[in-house]
Amino acid sequence: MIRLLAILALLSLATIGLAWVWDQPGDITIVFRAQRYEFAPIVALCGLIAVIAALLFVAWLLRLVFGAPARIARARRAAQKEKSLNALSKGMIAAGAGDLRAAQRASAIADKGLGDTPLALLLRAQTAQLAGDRETTRKTFEKLAEHPDARPLGLRGLHVEARRTGDTEAARLYAEEAHKIAPAAWAGAALLEHHSAGGDWPNALASVEANAAQRLIDRPTADRQRAVLKTAIALDMGDAHQGEALKLAREAADLAPDLTPAAALAGRLMARGGDLRRASKLLEAAWKACPHPDIARVYIDLRPGDSAADRLARAKTLARLVQDDPESDLCVAGAAIDAREFDMARQSIAPLIDATAISRPTRRVCLTMADIEEAEHGQTGLAREWLARAARAPRDKAWVADGVISDTWGPVSPVTGKLDAFRWTIPAEKLAAMAPWSPPSPEDFIETPMIEASPVEAPVSPPPAPADDAATKLAEIRAAARAAPRAANDPAPIAPDDPGPKPRDAA
């Protein structure tokens, strides 16, 4: 609206100006070569306007003629650039899809039209990676790192290539340089992983604090990483600095209540210091968050001078806190065996060996039943039967990280060096071939000499093995049953028709 009013105002002014010139009296005289030319003012004005228009037209025509080559060159460059940009887009898609040939063709076109621009270099590097040309990839990322705007991208590419070749020191340097230019999540994670893999817990903790301050990680992740690293530092201190280790362990337990190693260490150190009440509360809270045998062990043995009955009472306290959990049943059963309350031990572990259960009794359940039988009745066939079942029973929960099974927790994975990789879970198993199964007899565990039978006489029964030989064999079976395999994919025999052993009175 304002523009329309301005145009109307200009037209009005032009009209008024022309009317004023039209009304002016007199003539305009021009003398050229003794010739006298007289014009009215309005005619002279129109002639002047025509001359100016003609001059402008001639100038435009000359510029059009002489500027044609430059315009043609610009048009060709624009067309080439458009073609290169289209090739760049198609090349990125082809590289992402794994189409090497299409990516190489597009990269060649992009290089021709765009040269060493950052996007063309990125496509060239991705194409070289896809082709497995490490040398070209490294050189291309080095060129990218020379561009001020693309330097972080080039450093990240160099970092990835250094890790692929196993040059961890170069990878760390690239990550540090990128982190100095502009804090990035990948650089912060790389520095944290480098310090963690090398066991440099203080520097790893400093990296977590820096990442949290720059908001590269969220608060729950930062708290979890702080807890893991503080637990690792406290475990390394050992008994030499119990006060500082206790402080770190308590901080870790507060940051991550479900971190079992932190709670177990804090409870054990507080108990050594005589603070039994606070240790009990901390362990009970950790047990509610994640029932774990380490928590149960520390809680039951909180007072070294307690009797077996007192330890059993403490085990029952844990069982009341978390009911219907296998760890609670196993905890009470183990304490009941020490207190020689065998009926209570059987009653506690009975739900875990119920024949109607979906899964068979696990290794720890079978070993606990073997302990009950041996403690109450000695080295009998039923105890050996439970030990034999333990050797082929399903696995219990264990600390697992990247396919590695460990009896103890670690702050980093032993394979990748990743922080907080261990999880308390049931290891994966390969299913073995289904085969008929029957409970072993006591004679299967006693080595007896073979007596050749006479063709006409009845077979002679083998004499029983001496007691000391049977005890030795029983100890070997127990050791083999308790030894857990270390490979996550190690198959374990599965008995699909395993009903569980009969009660002793029925046997």
Query: From the structure provided, what is the oligomeric state, counting identical versus distinct chains?
Result: single chain
Structural class: mainly alpha
Number of helices: 21
Given as residue ranges, the uncertain stretches (5+ residues, pLDDT < 50) are 431-468, 484-507
Give the strand order of the largest sheet, numbering strands 1, 2, ... along the chain: 4-3-5
Distance between the termini: 105 Å
- Strand percentage lies at under 5%
Helix coverage percent = 55-70%
Envelope shape: elongated
Q: What integer value in Å does the Rg equal? A: 43 Å
Q: How is the main sheet built? A: 3 strands, antiparallel
Mean of all residue-level pLDDT scores: 81
Order of helices and strands: HEEHHHHHHHHHHHHHHHHHHHEEEH
Total count of strands = 5
Written account of the structure:
- The strands form two sheets. Strands 4-3-5 form a three-stranded antiparallel beta sheet, with no helix packed on it.
- Residues 431-468 and 484-507 have low confidence and may be disordered.
- α5 (118-131) packs antiparallel against α6, α9 runs antiparallel to α10 (201-213) and α19 (363-377) runs antiparallel to α20.
- With 507 residues, the protein is mainly alpha-helical.
- It is built from 21 helices and five strands.
- The protein has a domain at 27-61.
In short:
With 507 residues, this protein is mostly helical.
List the defining traits of the structure above.
507 residues, single chain, disordered C terminus, 21 helices, 63% helix, 5 strands, three-stranded antiparallel beta sheet, mainly alpha, two-stranded antiparallel sheet
